[in-house]
Automatic annotation (TrEMBL):
InterPro entries according to UniProt: ClpP/crotonase-like_dom_sf, Enoyl-CoA_hyd/isom_CS, Enoyl-CoA_hydra/iso, Enoyl-CoA_hydra_C
Main location (coarse class): mitochondrion
Localisation: Mitochondrion
Any one GO cellular component localisation term in the record: mitochondrion
Name by which UniProt lists this protein: enoyl-CoA hydratase
Single GO BP term: fatty acid beta-oxidation
PANTHER family recorded: ENOYL-COA HYDRATASE, MITOCHONDRIAL (PTHR11941:SF54), ENOYL-COA HYDRATASE-RELATED (PTHR11941)
Organism of origin: Bugula neritina (Brown bryozoan)
Family under the similarity heading: Belongs to the enoyl-CoA hydratase/isomerase family.
Amino acid sequence: MALVNTIVGALKSAAACRYAVPTSSSLLQRHNRLALGNNYNGGSAFYSNITVEKKGKKNNVGFIQLNRPKALNALCDALMKELQTALSDFSKDEEVGCVVLTGSNKAFAAGADIKEMQPREFAEVYKGDFLGFWNSISLFKKPIIAAVNGYALGGGCEIAMMCDIIYAGEKAKFGQPEILLGTIPGGGGTQRLTQAVGKSKAMEMVLTGDQISAQEALQFGLVANVYPVEELVDKVMEKAEKIASMSQIATGMAKEAVNSSYEMTLAEGIHLERRLFHSTFATILKLAINSIGSCNMGIINAKLITCKQYIRNVPLLDLKTCARIMRTAPTCFYVK
Ligand code: CAA
């Protein structure tokens, strides 16, 4: 009987265990949480093709690393959707003033996922506007920097070009090799590459599939600077922290103005720039009023602009400080 009881007890606890076993999705979530450690998830998602965190001394840089090493970060649908979610989270995060997008030392990204693309038919890609949503990266409002080590090919080169600045590691390779697959760039390559390197070089790259080195990319203006492979991310983080420390309103407007040069005529672009420039006075003036508090309102007429500090870091100013500000004009503070 004791044996029977033992067997019955064991069966009961086995059954209890079975019901306690987490479902595969909850296991996956738990695994992801553990694997992600303190990684940022913006409150809305866990990722399996990218890692996402906030970095920098002030925790104000959003850092996204493409993470499909076995496929050289090929941009499958799932990865691109995760990237879109991460950017959406960072766009809502007030603390984040700049985002860095990077890959591994071997590959930033080797392009759209060829294995995923291969079975697709015209009707499906046309009706589903395949790759259409990729463009959301270029619509991201905050500054975003691509830190490219290794291959940035096809879609990899294209998403780097959707970023505001590209920095490259010395061994980076850029290319639009789609022609070698019997197709053409589909993520903006023919347009953005041409704007970045000029028609002749872009044509050469798009028509031959030839890759260019980091040094050539620098020479042609595709990248802003080249760093040793191991130093790239640190150097880019320095730039990102610097950008993130600026007024988000000003960086947003500066980005909008520069990007408008791609879309508008010179006259329209200059008009937009001036209007944006004028609108920065609204934030500056407000700040001046906030900052001077009970001071002589005459300071508001002092020369404004040229900003070195954040309003958040600036306590209400006393009269003496205001007087000093007036002496050292043009100086002002801006709204973050
Ligand atoms: N899609 C899917 N898988 C890819 C891939 C891609 N774009 N690029 C590389 N991989 C995979 C390979 O299949 C391989 O996986 P398996 O071991 O499972 O077969 C793994 O990554 C490693 O690749 P290789 O063995 O080829 O690595 P390598 O060092 O010898 O060569 C490479 C590196 C030169 C980048 C080479 O992988 C390559 O040429 N890749 C394809 C690049 C390409 O054509 N990109 C354009 C894609 S189309 C596109 O992007 C359209 C668009 O405009 C959006």
